[in-house]
Automatic annotation (TrEMBL):
Its EC number is 5.4.99.-. One of its GO terms (biological process) is enzyme-directed rRNA pseudouridine synthesis. Belongs to the pseudouridine synthase RsuA family. PROSITE patterns: PSI_RSU (PS01149), S4 (PS50889). It comes from Candidatus Scybalocola faecigallinarum. This is Pseudouridine synthase.
Amino acid sequence: MKSLVRLDKYLADMGIGTRSQVKEKIRRGLVTVNGALAKGPEQKVDTQKDTILCDGAQVGYVHYEYYMLNKPSGVLSAARDKHAKTVVDLIDEKKRKDLFPAGRLDKDTQGLLIITNDGPLAHELLSPKKHVSKVYYARVEGCVSSQDVRDFACGLKVDEELTARPARLTVIHVSAEENISEVLIEIQEGKFHQVKRMFQAVGKTVTFLKRLTMGPLHLDPGLLPGQYRSLTEDEIRSLKHPEEAARPGSLENGRLKDNDLLMDVDAVIFDLDGTLIDSMGVWESIDEEYLGRFGIPMPEDLQEAISGISVTQTAIYFKETFGISDSIQEIISDWNDMAMEHYTNRAPLKGGALLFLKYLKHRQIPCAIATSNSRDLTRAVLESHGITRYFQAVVTGEDIHKGKPEPDVYLEAAARLDARPSRCLVFEDIPYGIMAAARAGMGCAAVFDTFSAGEDDEKRRLADYYIRDYLDIFNQTYEELK
Ligand code: URA
């Protein structure tokens, strides 16, 4: 253990203030080292021998340790217990000494627990007056309703002893069939069995509970239940000085704002047209322009007839339906020329798409495109928006034989990403695409698009989630998830 440290670090570590606050104290002559005025913030002091005074009071040095534990179920949140295994028992024996958990999770609850020997910090984190936020993921028996969300937000009367402070409930998924819900709940207090009692009060039972955040700290997804690691300097600083920590939910924090529909997701697959880019109108214009060349008016039901099928299938459909004498290759080549211009100049990315792609990259979640569109066009679109590097695989209508609603394009994308279909999340804008994702055994988020607005009810029925645009993912509310 290092005994020589900078004076400003010594004082900041002991909670005298932030680095800049203690530098100011040193500058103003309020700090002495062994009776002499401190020379400056960078002065090295010996934590074991030197006597440091600040504002006339001695500041002793205690070597604090801080660990983040992913608590498994079945262990007690206590330092020691005669009969049961405790969370401190999970820490390497040589490090245990005076450690204790900063707060409690029920024996069957999992997730983020801070293990430390810093009593003052633990006290701050647990003080009811500090309103430190904690986010839990919960699986609940019963269908969580919008009334529950409102009741939680208004401060729920749990029982005679407890009226909870306002809590934010974000519904991830409700299955009326299975009578279960998945939610995120954010509370700012930590009464005994609080989350379980809150759900009990609205007639539901928590069947699984995992703490994801505590103040500015987020559970490290790399920690398996029972594993722990030391907190980083930044994390310790953010706990001690939460006012200086990055805004929760900001991308820098590596977190979605509040709802994590990426939970249990190893890979994300995007449809292109209407999902990632606003392009459905492009094809309508191209079809009209193309048929116009042959003097054929565009049938009203054309878009519906070719919805989701591959480019080759569409060319065959055109050839057969409109008696076009050009070869399939020629038809596709003409479309590609026309589409190249439309796509690269007139098809913007959907709202929040770039932010979401950056976020996925940040979380190292691999992404693929699975589209019925052509290879060249897909590549050109990705290039024109500068987003090629966000995709580890691109599967197009030219790579597969059966278009959506057959699952082939999604299964191929998952295979190229080396991801299990059940751990993939698909973003899709048309019912056929959502069906394809379901047939591939993947979760699916339906994306609003003007051209399929008339099918919104069906999209909501078929998909697991519904978003208006990608910004919704960063701030979903119950209304959008219904
Ligand atoms: N609320 C609960 O009900 N249990 C926990 O472990 C934490 C919060």
